[in-house]
Amino acid sequence: MNKLNQTPLSVLNLAPVAHDDTMRDAMNKSTDLAQHTESLGYQRFWLAEHHNMDGIASAATSVLMNHVAEHTSSIRIGAGGIMLPNHAPLTIAEQFGTLGTLHPDRIDLGIGRAPGTDQLTARALRQSGGGAEQFPEMLNELINYFEADAPQRVEAYPGRGVNVPVWLLGSSSFSARLAGRLGRPFAFAAHFAPAQMMEALKVYHENFQPSAHLDEPYAMAAINVLAADTNEEAEYLATSLYQKFVNLMRNQSLRTQPPVETMEGIWHDREKMAVQEMLKYSYIGDAARIKQQLENFIETTKVNEVMISTEAYDHEATKRSFEITAALTHDQ
Fold first, then answer.
1. Mean pLDDT score of the chain
2. Which intervals of the chain form a coiled coil (predicted)?
């Protein structure tokens, strides 16, 4: 039975841009956070691909990953994830083959099948090529580029034979089933799309087939955590996250806004309900509250690893949240 002090914790980061920051500021803060969470013992630091969003600075995910990897030494650096329909599989194999060559045994490649943006931007990225319906075929092509004993007419150099674990990411059972059948690790995006989490985890385990890469199922779930020294402070800081989700629904700027004393007058009742549903697995509070919530989550889901997204307007508050959460794993 997994417990909090036996469950690895990792970090999901979107290089969030505060409303008064530059893109460079956001990238520097992500790098600083990676260094900080590495010192705290977190397992992974993953960056996510999103496009045409002014509040996210990780669009060129592999480029930013390399920068972060250059400024850290032990924490695994990954993509959580690369949206494969936006790219030629060969291009991703070459990029991550390069990363895996420069930073041996430290690079993870999480793959998703959504565009990570609006359809107009997706078309601009893709120009022509595969859509989500061709995802299994594209994934198979990508994986083969990394295999040392799977020669093809076109090879990825660097890439072939480079150890880059491939994860499947998802917010439904589709990728869960595929990850199980391929014997690959699976990560569920419960930090913004919680509805199908339990079903997806069940499907993953039921369909898992051992592979050369994984003997047993390995599931991770991403959730939001905002820990502070008091419940009141945490709830105040969390209003920045609420504002971001409201602005997402309104198609407005996604730059992180300062916290507010109350959300009343900012969101409407329907928006409040929608945000609360999307943030179902968002744990906000002091150390005692967060510990209880994380223990319950791990007990309920039986996940092997928890990936944490923490986004406060103040960078030091974000770092403090990760400090408080990391300390919980040392409690008996």
1. 94
2. none
Of 240, 237, 184, which is closest to residue 212 (Cα–Cα)?
Answer: 184
Largest CA distance in the chain: 61
Report the DSSP beta bridge partners of residue 285.
Answer: 227
What pLDDT shows up at residue 121?
Answer: 83
Going from N- to C-terminal start, the domains of the chain cover 4-328
The CATH superfamily assigned to 4-328 is Luciferase-like domain (3.20.20.30)
Tell me how far apart the alpha carbons of residues 198 and 190 are, in angstroms, rounded to a whole number.
Answer: 10
- Is omega for the bond preceding 89 within 30 degrees of 0, making it cis? no
Supply the pLDDT for residue 2: 57
Residues in Cβ contact with 91 at an 8 Å cutoff, skipping those fewer than 6 apart: none
Beta bridge partners of 13: 47
Rounded Cα–Cα distance for residues 203 and 226 (Å): 29
Entry pTM? 0.95
Report d(CA 12, CA 46) in Å as an integer: 5
Burial class (CB in 10 A: 0-12, 13-18, 19+), 88: middle
59 pLDDT exceeds 90?
Answer: yes
